Amino acid sequence: MPGKYEELYDELIKRNQEIAIIGSCAGLLGWDERTYMPRSGAQARANQIAYLSGLAHQKFTDPKIGELLKELEQSPLAKDELSDSAVNIREIRDEYDKLIRVPQKLVEEISHTTTMAQGIWTEARAKSDFAKFLPWLEKIIKLELQLANCLGYKKEAYDALLDNYEPGSTYESVVKVFAEFRKELVDLVATIKDSKRKPDLSIIEREYPVDRQAIFGQAAADAIGFDFASGRLDVTTHPFCSGISPGDTRITTRYSPRHFSQAFFGILHEAGHGIYDQGLDKGHFGTPRGHSVSLGIHESQSRMWENFVGRSKPFWKHFLPLAQKTFPEALKSVAFDDFYFAINDVRPSYIRVEADEVSYNLHILLRFELESALLKGDLSAADLPGAWNEKFEQFFGIAPKNDAEGCLQDVHWSCGYIGYFPTYTLGNLYAAQFFAKVREDIKDLDRQFAVGNFSGLKTWLNKNIHTHGKKYRAQKLVQVVTGQPLSHKPLISYLRTKYGELYGF
Ligand code: ZN
């Protein structure tokens, strides 16, 4: 006979699983919208997704959930803090509080404002006209501050927003690790910029027939462990991965017929996200215990496969001969070292999404410093372009010529995503720290990669990261897995070693 608390817990879990089913239906509709839906279906699709989101929100904010949580928090089921039940109770409470603390009126105002702002931002970016976007940015900052005040925080308003993307992380903890990282990174980017050695980029900008790119990319995703019996790969404009339900994880990419890297590394990146989703514990579907930890930890998985594995020498020992067979016109007479250098080109550039694995992080640090200053009131929105350009020059040694390639380039702020940017660099930092530990645990990792064997790494990630779901918060997971708190050192040392060899320092 289950006791009273077991029954209450079952009720809580049943309600969460129901909400997860609604979420996975919305996810499938969203995937279809971005891949195969005819354009005229947009309005009806928006209504379908809005309806399901509303339904899920209504079910999650049902006062009954609050009552169940209150009883269960006092029960033996919450005692052992790492037990499945305690983890679920803790994380459902966190989510529930976030949802009920924000008045419906504010949710609607943010949604309405950001929908309008995205349209304005698109026009402003096209014309490089910051003044057009300025009033909307001001309004969004005001609304995000209101949101932070409703959510509550101990020290910084920024904490409340960051917590939506990277639960448990704070402004202070991010500043600490980013500040030390920044000093060394600015130096590293400058050293590479001054190096006389430059790769021949024409190698990756030759004719790469799209149908063969698709076959080659799919084979690589399969080889690293993305399970195509539980997933698929399709074409889209802005690539993403959608973990729809257990047994159904979908990745996407876009092909450019005259560029090798874009689609190929994009596929590895999304496959890394997909392998994480496929590695979650299916028995816990629909509960936090079966859910990914955070955006940063998700990004650590995609970056690890894309960069630490996919842009490494051992990986290409195995894959270059195959690539040369698949693309003989482009690659037949290319030497290994030239190819390897071309896919690892580093140079300061204005656009974040086109940046290499070294300078990418400087783009993020810059955004983090500016958005937190905007939120604190240390920087006014009107002064953003000037502050952006000044900091850009200080970080990269070059200055953007206009705001389209400066502070207007990203969609995030127009969507109200303040506190989101740091998760990209946190992802790189987590990835480096995990990967250093993998190297300790699997001594012949490079030899395995060089013969096309990636199952050692995949199994390690399944066991140490994926299967835990939300058992640990991100920073705690890093501590548990690596035995050390999060640090910038593994990433900077990985970058120095790899690029020191390429650029000769
Ligand atoms: Zn990603």
Task: Give a structural overview.
The protein has 505 residues and is mainly α. It folds into 2 domains: 4-152, no CATH class; 171-503, Neurolysin, domain 3. Helices cover 64% and strands 3% of the residues. The chain contains 21 helices and 3 strands. Strands 1-3-2 form a 3-stranded mixed β-sheet, with helices on both faces. Helix 5 packs antiparallel against helix 6 (130-151), helix 8 packs antiparallel against helix 15 and helix 9 packs parallel to helix 10. The longest helix is centred in the N-terminal third of the chain and has 32 residues, at 4-35. The protein is globular, with a radius of gyration of 23 Å. The model has no long low-confidence stretch (mean pLDDT 97). Zinc ion binds at residues 269, 273, 299, 302.
Question: Which secondary structure elements does this structure contain, and how are they paired or packed?
Answer:
Layout: H1 4-35, H2 42-60, H3 63-73, H4 84-101, H5 104-127, H6 130-151, H7 157-165, H8 171-194, H9 210-224, E1 231-235, E2 241-245, E3 248-253, H10 261-279, H11 295-309, H12 313-326, H13 328-331, H14 336-342, H15 360-376, H16 384-396, H17 422-441, H18 445-450, H19 455-464, H20 474-482, H21 489-503
Parallel strand pairs: 1-3
Antiparallel strand pairs: 2-3
The structure holds zinc ion.
Residues 269, 273, 299, 302 line the site of zinc ion (ZN).
